[in-house]
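Hello,

I think I submitted the guanosine-5'-triphosphate job twice by accident. Can you confirm which output corresponds to this input? Input:
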Amino acid sequence: EPPITLRSLSEAIGIKANQLMRRMMDLTGQLVTINTTLDEDAAIELALEFGVELAIVREETAEDQFDRLLEDARAEETAPEHLQPRPPIVTILGHVDHGKTSLLDYIRKANVVASETGGITQHIGAYQVEQDGRRVTFVDTPGHEAFTAMRARGANVTDIAVVVVAADDGVMPQTKEAIAHAKAAGVQIVVALNKIDLPGAEGNVNRILGELSAEGLIPEEYGGDVPVVRTSAVSGQGVDDLLATLATIAEVYEYKANPDRPATGTCLEAEISEGRGVIATVLVQDGTLRVGDAIVCGEGFGRVRALFDDQGRSIQEAGPSTPVEISGLDAVPTAGEKFAVLEDISQAREVAETRRTRSRGASLGETKAITLENLYSKM
Ligand code: GTP
Ligand code: MG
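Support: Only one job matched these inputs. Its output is below.
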């Protein structure tokens, strides 16, 4: 909020600045100028000295508005009658090469693994699939140890975490890390015991169930509450089982959002693309994002110029739980950063510019406000 100066107080209460300054000096014994700032309590007290009751009304800044939109979305302050079912967001986590992308690929029946450099997931891919008329949003994450932050991000945007463990290998360092992220995020966890088609895999199952228990994931077959589904991304064994397990969880939790509000969500990845400007993959978590919306994400802002779905098709709008690629931001946001649609572009600009100034470390210099204590220290 802007500081209260003697000048602005003078203008607000219609008492001459000279009078205010004189009284202030009497009260504090300090030299003051017309630009001396006061905190709210001090301003209220000083106004009272002149018989004026000062009410401080705070206008919502653009940054406040951004925060409020996210908070509303989180708190689902929206009246329940506005909430509508949305697809669950399922993140695939696990150790490198345990078959996360292959499993998702089997589910999507497209070939994403082949197009990746060396088969290692470099970024978060997000897709929506439809199974028996029900949609599920999947977020793929890299298992490589260099990508801790991305796994954390994945766990934070998700409703359900599928922890993939290769049956020929078992619980590995990044499996443990994935479990920790999912637990910290407080989301439902399902284990996919993958590569079950490999010879000897079945023989490892008991050991791995023990390893999972040691990590605090007690499998249902051991009396716990963690479903462990045997899968193969090669033969497709267990994939339907996995989808059914996810559907059951989604039925129990009835994930909901309000499509009729300004969109909020999270950036999963972003880059500058030759000729297209900043391209960001975002996950809409609440509200509906539309072409033309004034959006802020991290230090970037702009009007949404175009929206593309997970198959690269141009779309006009994207509702809750939809992963979507957007163009139109003027700066590349960091993955994991929240986005929100503001009322107009000037507010979006204001938020982005405030953040840029802040991150540049620009400081207007230490201004020491007069507080109630030093206002009365002489009395
Ligand atoms: P990162 O993204 O690098 O962490 O790996 P990932 O977990 O996505 O593993 P990916 O799907 O790329 O698979 C790694 C290798 O395991 C590939 O060669 C796959 O063909 C193979 N693979 C994945 N799932 C299975 C499976 O169920 N059975 C068998 N036999 N091989 C599998
Ligand atoms: Mg992968």
